[in-house]
Write a structure and sequence with these properties.
With 624 residues, this protein is of the alpha/beta class. 46% of the residues lie in helices and 15% in strands. α4 packs antiparallel against α5, α5 packs across α6 and α15 crosses α20. Belongs to the polysaccharide synthase family. Keywords: Membrane, Transmembrane, Transmembrane helix.
């Protein structure tokens, strides 16, 4: 039967409706005659009016087609269609009175009125019965998904009403946090408390939950969804009416956070102006060009009009994306943008790239920078950050590159982690090369955390908020210096231009920002409230998880705290001790031997010996 119904075309289904409507005419007439007090029996009266019935049927068919009733689908037979049915019945009652009068058949006027009413009721009843029959056939022939509706409010009940007529979905019950609704029956469905979800799912063979709580805050919805998904349920959320009509975006409420809002100070604007001369018309190489800092370096260098910009990157995807962007920016400028896929630890490739492209300025931003990852993989971090820097800097010096600028970090100062130690070792290597190669100007730029960079804290908080929280903070006492990406890059380019050799440049970054304060700001600027002891009904909770391996409560910018001013009032030069050429050779030899032996303990001993202020992180710091 299902195949037969499915095979019918739209016009064939219309013929079926017309045939049913015509077959109901004699039945409606017989029903009418039964109700009326007539001199003959109902059957005799029906036989008496038989000559006019074909004309009545023809009129019914024509009027039905004119009104469009046969083309109205069963699942769309509602208010308007019922009105058209009433018009058809009214017109057919008039036709009946006219035809019997012309034929000389004497019937009371009330008979035709009753016929119109009876025919109208028969037509409506027939559509309802047909719909239920077809729906039953479809339901029997096709598998139905049993769903639970979370939310028994207005949206939930409207959803249940709509799904009652669906041929593939079968709503089974409601779940609602409102205790006043629990235990009630709405739209024929029982309302249960959320605590019974697991029991209901098993008992009623439910595989999907429809979340009908659009007015609930996004984090709370995310928390509910997360809890349901852990039960192995598929969850779908229903948008609000405001979203459906376009007054509210069908996306997460979370809005981008302007980085300068979290600095705790005014953002610095370091105008390059004449400093662009150090890059204009030159071949500039940026290592780590696909990273947050590297890509911004490339964008700002393009404004200085170099002759060539070489993008050196290990990640194929990152290189592809930054090259696509920069090629468009450099269009019609005459600047050649060259993508190079490779590692800075490969001396032969580094030498070839520098030679083939006649590189005159190197900005070295390639590094493993995520503290926990490098702490878990110390040998890889040291190999890339230390020996990658040594290889690129040594080859640049040997080929007479004009400037080599190392991007360093505040974590290099008295580090408690391998990442910070690797950056300090890289600084020592560059300082050593600066004393031995007068033809190349070497300098280092050291700054704090960069807001908005990959893996930084603000995008992490935003991601946690979008998933309903909690926002995780390692320790309520943790503070960090912050910069915008634009500030950091302006500093690097400015310092690179001002460098005369072997300097460690730092920026006046104001006071460090408490991470707990930052977490609260990100939550509030996303439009939510913090859930804590003072506000137990808030949206997002802040969870303290303890310091991660290698993490400090506060970072420093210099070892000696002795800073010398430069031509720019917010850029300073740190006076720090250097190692001799022999000492640098010894540390590199010891580190190379540790890497060759895959000996993490030996590598840490090299760091302990040569990195001033380095202290090994231990679990006691979590509670100290």
């Amino acid at each position: 039967m299902f195949r037969l119904i499915s095979a019918l075309s739209r016009s064939q289904k219309a013929y079926v409706f017309i045939a049913v409507d015509l077959a109901l005419i004699p039945l409606a007439l017989l029903f009418t005659y039964t109700l009326q007090s007539l001199p003959t029996t109902p059957v005799e009266t029906l036989i008496q009016t038989a000559p006019v019935q074909p004309y009545l049927m023809a009129a019914a068919a024509g009027l039905s087609l004119w009104l469009g009733l046969p083309h109205i689908q069963l699942n769309a037979y509602e208010g308007h269609a019922v009105g058209m049915t009433a018009v058809l019945a009214l017109l057919l009652a008039g036709a009946s009175a006219l035809l019997t009068e012309v034929s000389g058949i004497a019937l009371p006027p009330g008979t035709h009125v009753m016929f119109g009413i009876s025919y109208f009721l028969f037509l409506v009843a027939a559509r309802v019965v047909l719909y239920q029959v077809v729906l039953a056939i479809y339901r029997r022939a096709q598998p139905r998904r049993r769903v639970l509706i979370y939310g028994a409010g207005t949206t939930g009940t409207q959803l249940a009403q709509a799904l009652k007529a669906h041929d593939r979905i079968d709503p089974v019950a409601f779940v609602d946090d409102n205790t006043s609704l629990q235990g009630m029956v709405l739209m024929g469905l029982p309302v249960f408390p959320p605590a019974r979800i697991s029991e209901i799912v098993k008992a009623r063979d439910i595989s999907r939950v429809l979340l009908a709580m659009p007015s609930q805050s996004q984090p709370k919805q995310a928390q509910i969804i997360k809890r349901l998904q852990t039960m192995g349920l598929e969850v779908q959320a229903l948008p609000s009416f405001a979203q459906l009509i376009g007054e509210e975006a069908l996306v997460d409420k979370l809005t981008p956070v302007a980085p300068q809002n979290f600095l705790g100070r005014a953002a610095r604007r370091v105008a390059l102006e004449a400093d662009c001369d150090s890059y204009a018309g030159r071949a500039v190489l940026v290592s780590g060009a696909g990273g947050s800092i590297g890509s911004e370096l490339c964008r700002q260098i393009l404004n200085c009009r170099p002759a060539k910009l070489v993008l050196y990157e290990l990640s194929e995807l990152a290189l592809y994306l930054v090259h696509q962007e920069l090629e468009q920016l450099a269009e019609d400028t005459g600047i050649e943008v060259v993508p190079v896929l490779g590692s800075v630890t490969d001396p032969r490739q580094v030498r070839k790239v520098l030679t083939d492209h006649g590189v005159q300025v190197v900005l070295h931003a390639a590094a493993y920078k995520h503290v926990p990852l490098v702490e878990a993989n110390p040998l890889a971090g040291l190999a890339n950050n230390v020996f990658g820097t040594q290889t690129l800097a040594r080859e640049a010096a040997a080929l007479g590159v004009e400037r080599f600028i190392l991007i360093s970090s505040d974590k290099a100062v008295r580090p408690t982690n391998v990442m910070g130690a690797s950056k300090r070792l890289a600084e020592l290597v560059v300082q050593d090369l600066a004393t031995r190669y007068a033809s190349t100007i070497f300098a280092m730029v050291r700054f704090g955390n960069v807001l908005g960079s990959s893996g930084s804290v603000v995008p992490l908080f935003q991601d946690q908020i979008s998933r309903g929280g909690p926002v995780t903070v390692t320790d309520p006492r943790v503070k960090r210096y912050f910069m915008t990406i634009s500030e950091a890059v302006q500093l690097v380019l400015k310092a690179g231009s001002e460098a005369r050799g072997s300097e460690v440049f730092v920026l006046d970054m104001g006071e460090p920002v408490p991470i707990m304060q930052l977490a609260r700001q990100v939550i509030q600027r996303a439009g939510y409230t913090v859930r804590d002891a003072d506000n137990p009904d808030g949206d997002i909770e802040i969870e303290i998880i303890g310091l991660r391996p290698g993490e400090k409560l506060e970072e420093e910018l210099t070892l000696s705290r002795d800073l010398i001013g430069t031509r720019h009032q917010k850029i300073f030069c740190a006076q720090e001790a250097k190692l001799s050429e022999i000492e640098v050779a010894a540390l590199l030899r010891g580190l190379r031997e540790a890497l060759a032996a895959s000996d993490e303990s030996a590598a840490r001993q090299v760091i302990l010996r040569w990195v001033e202020g380095y202290s090994v992180w231990d679990d006691n710091r979590k509670t100290s």
